[in-house]
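Notebook entry, structure prediction.
Reason for the run: the old model in the group folder had no record of what sequence produced it. Starting over properly, with the input documented here first.
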Amino acid sequence: MNRFRYGEYDDGPDPLAPPYDVRSAVDEMGRDVMAGTDPKRALRDLLRRGTQSARGLDDLLGEVRRRREQLRSRGRLDGTLEQARALLDRALGQERAELFPDPSDEARIREAELDSLPDDTSSAVRRLSDYRWRSQAAADSFAELRDLLRREVLDTRFQGMKEALADSTPDDMRRVREMVDALNDMLDADERGEHTQAGFDRFMDSYGDMFPEEPRPRNLEELVDSLARRAAAARRMMDSLTPEQRSQLQGLMDEADAQSGMSRALDRLSGALRARRPDLGWSGGERMEGEQGLGMGDATTALQELADLADLDTSLNQHYAGAGVDDVDEDAVRRALGRRAVDDLERLRAVERELREQGYVEGARNRLRLTPKAVRRLGETALREVFADPANSPRPGGHSDDAAGHSGEATGATRPWVFGDEEPLDVVRTLQNAIARSGAEPGGRVRMRPDDFEVAETERRDAAAVCLLVDLSYSMALRDLWGTAKQTAMALHALVTTRFPQDAVQIVGFSDYARELPPEGLAELSWEPVQGTNLQHALLLAGRHLDRHADFEPIVLVVTDGEPTAHLRRDGSADFAWPPSSETTAATLAEVDRMTRRGAGLNVFLLADDPRLERFVDEVARRNGGRVVRPDTDRLGGYVVRDFLTRRRRAA
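New structure, fully documented this time:
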């Protein structure tokens, strides 16, 4: 009987998880863009913060820096010197113990020779290279010392060699020499342009067990990169020692190379690697701390990892021109932080990729732009957030329109249906169009297409001409109202275009001059450091919009934090004055009077406590009959949208 055990899946991303909802990334970016950040930086900040399903670059960067500190505290770099000195002292002690009972002159001569050894460990080892040990235990200790040095030296060049050559035989060392010679020959062949992938495959078939790192090199370039990074780390390990330590260790390494018979071959390999990868850090020390002494191989590994982490720190920081998530080396992340970090990195890459593929952003990395699709999404999100506030939600059971049926008496005429029409459907004409086009199918079925539909024309359709005038002056940015104003404009635009598509909506921004703002440009709109609050020009543009839609119900909403300080001269230039001039006030009130004659009420949303401003808007309300609203700035969007819906229902 088969038995099964179930547990949490931990081998990468959940294969059953739903695809990433890139719309939430658009919303996250949108909040920054609304606050004045350009899309490129907004995306970068999103990737740095991370998402609900993935840690951000800042989290990975913090983990990299913690890992660097852990490595620096792993231990000191002079561990091999300590081990070599300990083995040498043991061998000398064992030899003296053997010589002491011997009364012969030879024993005294040997003792004198041992006493005259230099204090320098490498010099002492070199002097003892031809010494004939009387004590077998001492000979074994000295052989252990030489074996240690040989394995440590090879481990600085080929990671894992120290363990691989434990209890090695002469045949093992001969095979290592053959591998180094074959590697040099392969590099020479590549230099001449004669190397092939087949040659690399044969090399790995013969010596692949000497390169146990994962992932295994797949070609000569990857092998060279791996060996060069380790060789550079070994060089930096030497630079990190004190001059005395460096001199002693270099002497021990030279002695080990000479004993192994690979001195020239290893020097040749080091030169070839440095020539191929001069871009690596081949010099410079590293601060290492800790109580434990590290062997040369382990110290080299630590410095190699520190170099990888330093490169990873740079790529995760993204503080260079043209930086992107694709620049982060996935293999380096896997080596330093593990599989989970690789999964997080892939999810972040998916965010950037899906934003492009799903049509939310476009353009080069340094000139990223939001698409109209992204702007519509931001408007819908702004509207959704407005209605998410309980203070802005419609009452239970309430409806947007209190009237039933169509908005006017039928004229008897019909016209083709267009998207957004709310007139009653003329069923007879619609069926006639479908049958005339394709006829009836067996069984009396009729297939219809959108262009078959016709609606009954009415005397007057229920439509509104909506104008939102938004103050974009410098004071709005100073009061941190910039993002709120843009979000309000986008929420209103989304509401009108989705729920009242027959309406005509216009967004006007005004500072020293006024200008109509296209909906696709609202999100990325930046404030301009100019002086002036030209409400007169904004009302002038709104009046033209109302005149173009004379049969529509006029709705004009004004959002401002300051009294008018600019107006248009006769030549079209802006006249700015502070305190506001009487000419500016008179010109603005003249446009208010024109709005009143059009039957357009002005509802003003006041965002500042200024006695002069309050006196001005009170005069506007007296002349026009509109309302003055002093909203909580955090709920500006809700006030404006709710006001529009109230007036829209009254007009229906």
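Summary: The chain has four domains: 22-74+309-370, 78-287, 412-458, 464-651.
The old model has been moved to the deprecated folder.
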